[in-house]
Design brief:
By secondary structure, this protein is mostly helical. It has 2 domains: 108 residues, no CATH class; 158 residues, no CATH class. The protein is built from 11 helices and no strands.
Length: 304
């Protein structure tokens, strides 16, 4: 292993290329997570609600059952998780052959169409694969074969999945956010990114900062401006990068949100009341801070 790390350190282009290919493969699985995890969570929530009604509101449960209002939330197979069933065309449900499932290349070989029914396959699949590959390759070039690279690559995979789910479902699942918050604290227990004290303060300050904005906005307008998942996502970045990076992340994500929000209003005809997920902007700002946060802050302080 030490010989392998030495070779990778001496040949950064080789290490970056391997990281690109590996991340593209993981990117294919990220597409699965983005689609399937929300379905799994919705099923779990439905089962919990039905169990509650059956135990504590039997009359209501019987009424809903008699009127056949308690129906499955989807028409997918009963056994449905991140592994089973295998990948299939969403239109004709034909199984996707392994060579057609190759990251990026498979979609190009098929020319963006299902081999069985010739219906279009969304371009978001190769897009997420390419995004994962490019981001992790950038990490590999900057960090080299280190623990910082390995952990930041894991974080990047989780962040891409969180952004994709939030775009689709307006949801940032605790099943992804909280484990990576704890992983950030654990990593900084060894001082891999920032001292542990800064990480602890960062996690607390990250949560409380957006929580405070949420309640202030709600008191002033009577509306909820963001979800609790956003608080936890910022706390995650505080745990990884320390409290010092939080102002930068909040500023960058707010600027991104304002620019993209105005663009959607002006060019896409989106209504002002339409909710826009804030999680992807936090993800972008946090990832930028992970790599270049110190340089950006130093440049800003020098320019004062």
């Amino acid at each position: 292993m030490s010989d392998f790390l030495t070779i990778m350190s001496q040949h950064p282009w080789l290490f970056t290329s391997l990281a690109f290919v590996f991340a593209a493969v993981i990117g294919s699985f990220i597409n699965v997570v983005i689609y399937r995890l929300p379905v799994m969570l919705k099923r779990e929530w439905q089962q919990e609600c039905e169990s509650y009604l059956e135990e504590y509101q039997p009359a209501a449960f019987k009424l809903l059952t008699d009127k056949q209002l308690l129906q499955p939330i989807d028409k997918l197979p009963a056994r449905f998780n991140l592994i089973v069933p295998g990948s299939a065309c969403p239109k004709c449900h034909s199984a996707i052959k392994p060579w057609h499932n190759l990251p990026i290349i498979g979609w190009l070989l098929l020319r963006g169409k299902c081999a069985a029914c010739q219906q279009p396959i969304s371009g978001r699949y190769p897009l997420f694969e390419l995004l994962a590959a490019l981001l992790v390759a950038t990490l590999a070039w900057n960090f080299g074969p280190t623990w910082q690279f390995a952990l930041s690559a894991l974080l990047t995979f989780a962040l891409i999945a969180l952004a994709g789910i939030d775009i689709d479902e307006m949801l940032l699942p605790d099943q992804l956010t909280l484990p990576f918050l704890w992983l950030g604290l654990a990593a900084n227990g060894f001082g891999l990114f920032v001292p542990l004290t800064d990480a602890l303060i960062g996690a607390i300050a990250g949560y409380l900062s957006l929580w405070s904005v949420f309640w202030l906005f709600k008191l002033l307008t009577g509306k909820e401006g963001m979800g609790y998942g956003d608080f936890k996502l910022l706390a995650l970045f505080g745990a990884w990068l320390g409290w010092q990076m939080l102002p930068l992340i909040i500023l960058l994500s707010s600027l991104l949100g304002a620019v993209i929000g105005l663009s959607l209003l002006l060019f896409k005809g989106m209504q002002r009341n339409n909710p826009i997920p804030f999680g992807p902007y936090i993800v972008i700002a946090g990832w930028v801070a992970l790599l270049w946060g110190q340089s950006i802050v130093s440049w800003y302080l020098r320019s004062l």
